Amino acid sequence: MRPNGGGNEMLGRRIAARLTGKRIAYAKSQVRDPTRPGCGFWPAQNRVLIGTRRARPGRRICVLQGPHTVSSAEGFVMMMRVLDGVTTVGLPTRGARGHVEEKGDALDRALRILRAP
Fold it and tell me: What is the Cα–Cα distance from 31 to 14, expressed in whole angstroms?
């Protein structure tokens, strides 16, 4: 991965899906809702990569990552890490910060804990 500030994680899923014929969980997400009682978090959900029928698994791939790999690029690194034949090399990614939207007085934050070691 070149230094990458993110983009659309769905594009990464399309690439990674071509490398497996399986359904694989690659990360977990949690959404915070300040109107929810307690800590305000919804239960964690698996982020899933769904392989294609025409997948070409078994390829040997090396993914270079570093501290400038952020946001959806981190999601792509996480997808690649769970695939057979893929090796990730480099420094840890920066770690996703989450997406923040202001809605009235409340902040809704989608938390993605994707720091790839």
Answer: 24
